Each structure stands twice: as C-alpha cells, then as structure tokens.
Amino acid sequence: MHEVLADNRYPGRGVLWARTRGGLLCGGYFLTGRSAASKERFLRQEEHALSVVPTGESGHDALRHYLAARERGGWLVFGNGEQVAVVSDRLHQGNGPYQAMEGLEYEPDPPICTPRITVVADLRTEPHAWFGAARRPRGHRTGADLLTLAVRELKPGDAVLMTTYRSDGERVEAVAPLVEARTEAGDRQELLAEVWAGLSPEVRVAAAVFEPGRLADAAIVHQRSGTTQPV
Fold first, then answer.
1. Are strands 13-19 and 227-230 parallel, antiparallel or unpaired?
2. Eight-class DSSP state of 97
3. What count of other Cβ atoms lies within 10 Å of the Cβ of residue 143?
C-alpha cells in the first residue's frame, strides 16, 4: 500500500478499508492539500465522530470542512464531505447502504469536479463495507455516475483504497475506481504509519485509522509546519 500511495503525488482525500497482518479490521481516512487553505485543517476527534475543521480563524467552507466520520445506530460512515452526514441520517432512518448512498453528487468545484467518496460499515455483525463514489462522467454528460460496491471477507494483509485524485505531481484528474493493495501493518498504529509514510510530505495534512465500533479511539496524525504531530 505504501507504494500505491507514493506513486500518486497528490491523491486529494482517501478512504481505506483493511485487515492488518494481526487480523484487525480498520477503516482509514486521510487529507492532502496544495493550497494554504487546504493545508490549514485538522481532524477534530469527538465521541462518535471525526470532523475536518480549520486550524485558525478562517470561516467555514463546505468543501473543506465537514463531518468526516460518524458512528450511529450500528453503522460507521466515513468519507470526504457533507454526504457523510446525509448517508448516516439515511441509515439511521432504516435505509440500507445502497439506498443511503443513492442520489449522491460530485462536488461543485469545476473544472475538476471532485468525486464524493464514502464508506459504510455495518457494526452489528462481522463488519462488511460498502464503497460509494459519485463522480462526473467523462465526456459531455453532467449527471453523476454512482459506483456502489460491497467489499467482504478481507484476509490478513488485504487493503482496499479509494482516492479522489490521481496525479503525477503536475496534472490532477478525478478518479473513482477502487485500488486493491496489501499492507504490512500488524496493528492500527502501524497501518496509520504506513499510510502517512506513503503520502508526499509537501501535501499531506492529516490521517486517521480507526477500528469499527471504536471511532472515539481513532489514531490520528497531523502535519503542521513540517512537523508530524500525533493526537
């Protein structure tokens, strides 16, 4: 997985579902940024949630600041924008994962039109995960294409990753497909370290790894002024 991340110079935001070598299921979320405003963010840890918030006095920006993860009513939801709250509410109202992610749209940030990427995990049984991506199609169509895929039965060392962008360091394009990878991590902290090391230091902002059902105990790391700061 380190190589997969390192090969993508600017992945934007990413979601991860993995089983460590020690057999532990984990979810993960990370932020990268190129502009000053994108870099001035951190992951605020709450009882049953993680939120992306500004580091300073800057005002709220709906595309940069949002609920990134929530555990509620037997479900874990995490992703890169306001759709996390929407999907969580729909699940709480009795919808299944496919219905909860139905009708999602990509971000209104032309020309790149960043995909909305979301993971839903059922905490009531052995956690299964559903990945969702709403992206603008290539060509002239403007309605969102929505991919929803169930991911089950990860073996130790298996990891599934989705990022918003693919970049060679100069050109940035929106992507949606999943990437299947392998992790050498034995536990949650090692998985976080593996993700963090794979991100380019000049763009990384924050990352979190958490066990399903234990979001309040998420392992989090931030990059501030060139210094890695565990939280």
1. unpaired
2. H
3. 9
pLDDT, average across residues 43-67: 89
Segment 124-130 long-range contacts (CB within 8 Å, at least 24 positions apart): 124/74, 127/25, 127/76, 127/212, 127/213, 128/152, 129/17, 129/27, 129/160, 130/97, 130/98, 130/101
Task: State the Cα torsion 102-107-110-113 to the nearest 10°.
Answer: -60
Asked if 84 contacts 103 with a C-beta cutoff of 8 angstroms, the reply is: no
Fold of 2-230: Glutamine Phosphoribosylpyrophosphate, subunit 1, domain 1 (3.60.20)
Q: Which tokens belong to 210?
A: 């958490």
Residue 157 is classified by DSSP as T
Pick from 182, 143, 142: which is nearest to 160 by CA? 182
Indicate the pTM of the whole model. 0.93
Residues 6+ apart with CB under 8 A from 71: 48, 49, 123, 213, 215
Query: What is the pLDDT at residue 226?
Result: 42
Decide if 222 contacts 205 (C-beta within 8 A).
Answer: yes
pLDDT digits (tens, 9 = 90+) for 107-163: 999 988 999 999 999 998 877 899 999 999 888 888 899 999 999 889 999 999 999
Contact 164, 114 (CB under 8 A): yes
C-beta neighbour count of 94 within 10 angstroms: 9
